[in-house]
Amino acid sequence: MKLSNLSLVVCIASVLCAGMMSTGALAAGIVVNIDNPQFREVVAAIPDFSVAKSSDDRETAAVATEANDELQRLLNFTGIFKMIGQAAYKDLMVKAQPSWFSDQGIGSVNVPEWKTVGVESLTLAEVTREQGDFWTILIRTIDIGRREVLIGKKYSQVGRKQVVAVMRRYGDEVLKAYTSKSGIFNSKMVFIGRTSASASKQVFISDFDGSNAVAITRGNFPHLSPSFSADGKYVTYTSYEAGNPDLYIYDVAAGTSRKLSGQKGINSGGNFAPSGKVVAFTGSVNGDADIYTILPGGGTRKLFITGSGLDVDPSFSPDGSKIAFVSGRFGNPHIFVANLNWASPTEPRVTGDQRLTYAGWFNATPAWTPEGDRIAFAGYDKEIDRFDLFMMNSDGTKLERLTLRTGDNERPWFSPNGQNLVFMSNRTNGQNVKSVHQLFMMNRDGSNQRQLITGLYEAQTPCWGPNL
Question: In terms of C-beta density within 10 A (0-12 exposed, 13-18 middle, 19 or more buried), how is residue 369 classed?
Answer without folding.
Answer: buried
